Amino acid sequence: MAATKRKRRGGLAIQAKKPKRNEKDAEPPAKPRATAEEVEEEERNRIPGPVCKGKWKNKERILIFSSRGINFRTRHLMQDLRRLMPHSKADTKMDRKDKLFVINEVCEMKNCNKCIYFEAKKKQDLYMWLSNSPHGPSAKFLVQNIHTLAELKMTGNCLKGSRPLLSFDPAFDELPHYALLKELLIQIFSTPRYHPKSQPFVDHVFTFTILDNRIWFRNFQIIEEDAALVEIGPRFVLNLIKIFQGSFGGPTLYENPHYQSPNMHRRVIRSITAAKYREKQQVKDVQKLRKKELKTLLPHDPTADVFVTPAEEKPIEIQWVKPEPKVDLKARKKRIYKRQRKMKQRMDRGKTK
């Protein structure tokens, strides 16, 4: 029996409180250890933890902005690149009067170590700078054949913020300046692993192909069923101009001998059209001179009229009577139509009265 206590004033005996159990005593009895097969099944069915548990080590940040004077297509291309690159940052447009070295200070304020800068000239030419700020190197390209996401309307699609695969042409490993550009493109366009804004999926590919001494950029979706590729967009072509040792300047490491400036290209087209017009004018002038020249008179050949037979002379008839005038059918129809219309108007007036 449990121990009892008595009150001092002779009350009834009260049962003493039971001692509290420890948490260890309250736990249910231990189950027998699971077999190895059950452990394997649990591991198969276990959902892996989120990728954000990993450590974000690659702190690459890309600053994407432009100068003033860009058109709508450039602005849409810039927005598409920002959507595809979750590790990018934006900034206000830079004044065209400012020097390019100012961009290094902007990157430092924005805590960015890479930069994509779009420079517009004459409201029709677009240049792209890819730079490793602040120590370099940097490369300047002429951007051609721009097609944005909204313009293409392709069937491909990818998750926003997903990490892309980078596919390079084998020609990038053949020449040293292409090898340098390949490393620069890898550092700029590859999304860092475990980035806070990135998604733990790889569902699209950035392809860089060299053709006609230019770099062609494409973006494709990877379809899960058969690993086929469907284009998403955007697409553009980069024509290399120069590679500099520093960021936005410095000694020139490489200059493209095949590059032709847009001004020179337009000048060549104008000269071709002018040459065509000049040739037409010369042909017209020659024709006018030929018409003005006196025709050379050949001496009369007496044998030319041997086979010519004179035509029979018709008697001349003099008409003494004036010929009858021709009947104008159109005028007669107009007169009849006017007469009928007047008669109809008179009849209508009589009815109204």
UniProtKB/TrEMBL annotation:
Domain annotation Brix: ranges: 60-249
The entry's keywords: Nucleus, Ribosome biogenesis
Keyword Transmembrane helix (UniProt): no
SMART domains hit by this protein: Brix
Molecular-function GO terms, alphabetical: rRNA binding
GO cellular component: nucleolus
Residues spanning the signal sequence: none
Record field: transmembrane: none
Region Disordered, residue ranges: 1-45
Residue ranges with Basic residues bias: 1-10
SUPFAM superfamilies (alphabetical): Class II aaRS ABD-related (SSF52954)
One of the GO BP terms on file: ribosomal large subunit assembly
Location(s), subcellular: Nucleus, Nucleolus
Entry-linked Gene3D superfamilies: Probable brix-domain ribosomal biogenesis protein
Similarity comment: Belongs to the BRX1 family.
Function, in words: Required for biogenesis of the 60S ribosomal subunit.
Protein's UniProt name: Ribosome biogenesis protein BRX1 homolog
Species assigned in the record: Saimiri boliviensis boliviensis (Bolivian squirrel monkey)
Lineage of source species: Eukaryota, Metazoa, Chordata, Craniata, Vertebrata
